[in-house]
Amino acid sequence: IPTGKIDIPIHYFKATESRITRPEKWRQYTRQPVKLFEVRGDHYSIFARPAVLDFAKKFDQILDRNKKISH
């Protein structure tokens, strides 16, 4: 757990079938926004086919966006 706030956005991936979701709790760790991304499935199935393909696509888009910003 960070001792202070970081100055980067947090990308929060929420499994649509998970009951407990508290992305707002992550705001205490960053000065930037907490960005929410929903992935179909539960906490475990989002890392298995077919949901992992959706997760990977969204994760890739974030990396591509950040790569363009840093260049």
Keywords for this structure?
71 residues; 1 helix; 2 strands; flat
Mean pLDDT: 91
Beta-strand proportion: 15-25%
Total E-strand runs: 2
Walk across the major sheet and give the strand order. 1-2
Strand count, sense and barrel status of the largest sheet are: 2 strands, parallel
Total helical segments: 1
Characterization of the model:
The chain has one helix at residues 51-70, and strands at 10-15, 34-39. The chain is an alpha+beta fold and 71 residues long. It has a two-stranded parallel sheet. The protein is flat. The termini are far apart.
Task: Summarize the topology.
Blueprint: E1 10-15, E2 34-39, H1 51-70
Nutshell version of this structure?
The chain has 1 helix and 2 strands. The protein is an alpha+beta fold. The chain has a two-stranded parallel sheet with strand order 1-2.
